[in-house]
């Protein structure tokens, strides 16, 4: 199978923050050599804690940011180095859904305008764009009669549906969803998750689903990649990764998620990590996880582990001492 | 003996240009020393307003009802007297640790401030107390860090500082309003463990306000589920999760994706959106979204929409004691998820 999206050795550095001396600090490697493939109609979950580079990776893929190094291949075409004009024909295949539904919708535009904007940019006529916007409203479970309303007239869950409708306007093949449900209430989250799953089935969409909530990711993804400090530390089929995590960080992350079941919570063995995730401006030597790792040894302090197959399946982990 | 905290028929309303908002409409609960009450609800359900009202921090709101701490009525107490209780006997930890800390003062000064006011302690004693507290909440090198400013701490460390500040005066009751929501999950686990350890050491009563049912399952002994400013269900934690009586609680549990779920069936979402508080419906606030109301007979359906259910023992045959639900059609244990 050739992948719809293929990312290789992706690196993004940002200039270091200026200190009190006015001199810029060393550049921050927010994304530090990330590679993955995503097939058509598939969902890859990208999980990790704040600052791990998951959102930056998503923004690089849709080319809201320019990669420092590495390649991004969409359908066999390297789009990593294309400028704004070069990207235009590819934009319609690549869309994004953002976390905060209200701040990602222009408060001064009607819903019709918001949803049809991508189509107008792509050269559709106003009448066609409006017709399509009405179809999309229906598709995401909103009433087309509300096309001329403004975003503030909608609840958070409805606003996220509008954001999804906008992302689907150009019939993309890949949607990058950055924390699409984390700003929503629990009772509304499930509606949006179900909607995204239905749309995927009906339209054959591929999702790059970025989230910190491991339970939601388990629910929606086929495969999952766990990021720590700009790198993927484990990637594979979700059943393998969730069922028998190979990287100690994945294990700790999974064991830290509280289960909505008091009896299971009490019975559970929990790995509590010490300290906070380190700053990407000053990453630890060797394996960047070693200062917090319960299994760290001398080698981990000096030698950076590479992703390699761990266990019987196809899952890969970047650890010198993975769990079998 | 009276319980540590006893809240009865608490009502909080705000006058807004769009009408009176009944943010909290008749909530009651008790918290005993050494126990944790989980206050769960979605945004706008009134859980944070409840906690602010308990602390007397409800500026511009009309508050009625009773809040008793060790039998002493706090509701209606003048500010001066409330000030001897706030921070001293009842302390609070908020969601965002950065906005709870003043950027211009060292963490040591901020931790000591409370302590010095309430105990009329010297600057030196206050500083000593701050170092002790930083050590207790697990901040490495407390004697050095005490002179650092909030921006020099990470998010998790700031929340530890907030907890140190809250506990410096040895309060009896801690109100924690979404204390881990802004934190990463591995740091959340550390903070929840820290609160549990301090609770055990000191016999602290805790009110844990959260939207996260996983957090509730981990820390709470009793749970109060709020919906639209009212209690939907009140129960000991095990019963609430194993046999929820209120369809809303059931709906919340069903709509959660779970790590330990083996199957990948679609999530059972609750349809619709939480109701407006400016124009409350006459009946049960949850009725328009409720699957049991929808499936009921026409007469029953009309009753759910017209008549507000009172919080009453969910007295289904076989139901355990100590469980209250505000529902005309409470679930019986047989209907529970296997």
Automatic annotation (TrEMBL), chain A:
> What keywords tag this UniProt record?
ATP-binding, Nucleotide-binding, Transport
Top-level lineage group:
Bacteria
**Pfam families (alphabetical):** ABC_tran, oligo_HPY
The family assignment reads:
Belongs to the ABC transporter superfamily.
Name this polypeptide is given: ABC transporter domain-containing protein
The residue ranges crossing the membrane are none
User: What's a Gene Ontology MF term here?
Assistant: ATP hydrolysis activity
- The positions making up the signal sequence are none
Annotated ABC transporter domain ranges read 5-254
The protein's organism comes out as Kitasatospora indigofera
- Coiled-coil annotated spans: none
Q: Give GO terms for biological process.
A: peptide transport; transmembrane transport
Q: Which SMART domains match?
A: AAA
Automatic annotation (TrEMBL), chain B:
Q: Which InterPro entries match?
A: AAA+_ATPase, ABC_Ni/Peptide_Import, ABC_transporter-like_ATP-bd, ABC_transporter-like_CS, Oligopep_ABC_C, P-loop_NTPase
Q: Which UniProt keywords apply?
A: ATP-binding, Cell membrane, Membrane, Nucleotide-binding, Transport
Per the record, what is one GO cellular component?
A: plasma membrane
Task: Answer whether the UniProt record assigns the keyword Cell membrane to this protein.
Answer: yes
As for membrane topology, the entry says: Peripheral membrane protein
Q: Which GO terms describe its biological process?
A: peptide transport
Where is this protein found?
Cell membrane
Which Gene Ontology molecular-function terms are recorded? ATP binding; ATP hydrolysis activity
Highest taxon listed in the record's lineage: Bacteria
Question: Does this UniProt record's set of keywords contain Translocase?
Answer: no
Q: Residue ranges of the ABC transporter domain?
A: 5-253
Q: Which CDD domains does the annotation name?
A: ABC_NikE_OppD_transporters (cd03257)
Q: Which Pfam families match?
A: ABC_tran, oligo_HPY
Q: Which family does it belong to?
A: Belongs to the ABC transporter superfamily.
Q: What protein am I looking at?
A: Peptide ABC transporter ATP-binding protein
Native species: Kitasatospora indigofera
Lineage runs:
Bacteria, Bacillati, Actinomycetota, Actinomycetes, Kitasatosporales
